[in-house]
Protein: DNA polymerase sliding clamp
Amino acid sequence: MFKAKIDLTVLKECIESLTAIVDEGKFRLTESGLKLRAVDPANVAMVSFELQRDAFDLFQFAVKESGSEADTDADTEAEAESESKDEIEIGMDFVKFLGILGIGGRDEVELELDEQAQKLFTRMGSLAYTISLLDPSSLRKEPKVPELEFPVQVIIETEMFRRTIRAAEKVGDHIVLGVDGEVFYMETEGEMDKLRLGLKKDQLIQLTPGTVHSLYSLDFISAMSKGMSHVENITLNLGKDYPLRLDFEVAEGKGKVSYLLAPRIENE
Structure:
């Protein structure tokens, strides 16, 4: 059983952060809130998402009781697995859900799950939707998070980062993110043009000094930047020829989003 009420703007921002990487995925509903981990179809980027129950105005959750003896073996096995995890797993088309939320104005969103019918009832003011959920078993398995140690961390204002990405898109297809001593830089080079942003430590919120740089696909970083449009600050975790982990908070600090992006290895 799952029933909840949440501010529409908060929920939209959360779903937008997911659609930056994936169109669909599996939410894990637990006593503590919502969780998700998914990779894009190309296996280049991953998103990890958590939303605490405190972000909701109402949050009611309970795992379904064991089925009767008349239930099929498959149903019993599925229920037993769900109970052992103390969670409910639902599959969702995030793009469709975001489109529905976009019609709701500024109303509070009421959510109620019908596990048996695999439907999510969604009410926003006078509008009521019945959303068909996806079969979780038809979706990709939740990926494991690799163990990574990042030597450098940069905290930057989101708008500065997003503006640089928009400018870089007009120049090339890839971007270098790096730190040289106490300067963080973003650099893109095309056939004819070149763009570079350099920020000293006192121009950033936080910087771990070091000497690292990695090359990434601008397409993916551009998509990620669209998923953080309402965020004040983001944290970049960097290394040399290393994945990028980009962290930020949503729902006034009651939710967390992490993007992990594989690097492109430069030819010597």
